[in-house]
Design goal:
By secondary structure, the protein is α/β, with parallel strands linked by helices. The chain is built from 16 helices and 10 strands. A hairpin with a 4-residue loop joins β9 and β10.
């Protein structure tokens, strides 16, 4: 929705649109933006889509195959904001077609970072991050020349339970977990922020996006979400990117890069802000440590961790699991799903299947 806000502001032609299951909103968007192609991932909603949009000169698609077909269409930029592992195949399709990819689906790089980054190099295309933290790092690295970063400083809001003890976390509710203090996001990513698994996923994403070692990524809790991330260089200089917490800023940069254009986001006033920083409590929020462990082991371990997290969060949202059981479920999967040091798309698919089979 925010990408479409940007498209409207700058008269960017929308060639194709997709949605997960919200067919009513997708139909309204299609009527407003008149794309050539529309896809609904939930195949059970295809008849609803067809009944409203047939005869309007729009090619209608559905399912995983439809999403991949959209991602591979000749275009200037593909925005992939699909939630979870479902975004991996469209990422491969977009890059494989040589399209510039504006990526908000961090799971693509978590489960198959080496595969995707190698393909980006092979196709000679661009991979631009949309996540606010990675967009900030990308911006801090603009114009660096031959200077390599010494350290990436990845900021985190701390989520709704910042400062909680392990005992206090035992009593948190789903409703409280879904109330992020700064950002308006979907349910899954909001829960990931509450467990701080989102920061673990972003750590892995940063390693692949910026070709750094895991130990070069430092996570810093910054509750105000004004400094979106920063980069430290060899001479001790730290360059950071600041702005109000509005996703339209990094989305717009990805769509207009290398140009910066006027934005509908509220400007920041340094006179009106206070910024504080603290270390994350990785003993209480040990999803960060699980992510570091998965990255260190490599192979399909990040895929196991990611899929286990998706399943655990879904169970939590359906009241089948408590909040504190989410990391426990992930840790169990990392110990019990078959590990493979070798990684390819077939192994990723099999790992996802086995993880789901063992956890459900």
């Amino acid at each position: 929705m925010q990408a479409l806000d940007v498209a409207k502001l700058h008269n960017i032609n929308v060639k194709a649109l997709s949605a997960g299951s919200n067919v009513e909103l997708l139909i309204r968007q299609a009527e407003e933006f008149s794309p050539e192609y529309v896809c609904i991932a939930d195949e059970s909603k295809y008849c609803d889509l067809k009944s409203c949009l047939s005869g309007k000169g729009i090619e209608l698609l559905c399912g995983k195959e439809g999403l991949c077909a959209l991602a591979s269409l000749p275009c200037d930029t593909v925005v992939n904001a699909i939630v979870g592992m479902a975004g991996f195949a469209p990422t491969l399709s977009a890059v494989g077609a040589g399209n510039r990819l504006a990526l908000a689906n961090k799971e693509s790089l978590v489960v198959g970072g080496e595969i995707i980054t190698d393909l980006v190099k092979e196709k000679g295309t661009d991979l631009l991050p949309i996540d606010s933290e990675h967009s900030a790092i990308f911006q801090c690295l603009m114009g660096r020349g031959e200077n390599k970063p010494k350290k990436l400083i990845l900021t985190a809001s701390g989520g709704p339970f910042r400062g909680y003890t392990s005992d206090k976390l035992k009593s948190v509710t789903k409703e409280r977990a879904l109330k992020h203090p700064n950002w308006s996001m979907g349910a899954k990513i909001t829960v990931d922020s509450a467990t701080m698994m989102n920061k673990g996923l972003e750590l892995i994403e940063a390693v692949w996006l910026f070709d750094v070692l895991p130990e070069q990524v430092e996570i810093v809790v910054h509750p105000q979400s004004i400094l979106h991330s920063a980069v430290e260089f060899e001479d001790g200089s730290v360059i950071g990117q600041m702005g109000v917490p509005d996703m339209r800023i990094p989305i717009q940069l990805a769509l207009t890069y290398p140009k910066r254009c006027s934005s509908c986001a509220k400007p920041i006033s340094l006179f009106d802000i206070t910024m504080t920083f603290e270390k994350p409590d990785e003993k209480v929020f040990y999803c960060i440590d699980l992510a570091r462990s998965a990255l260190k082991k490599g192979g399909n371990m990040p895929c196991i961790m990611n899929k286990a997290n998706e399943i655990a969060v879904d169970m939590f949202l359906r009241d089948k699991l408590s909040f504190c059981e989410i990391p426990e479920k992930i840790a169990w999967a990392m110990e019990n799903v078959c590990f493979s040091k070798v990684i390819d798309t077939d192994i990723i698919i099999e790992t996802e299947r086995e993880t789901e089979e063992k956890l459900k």
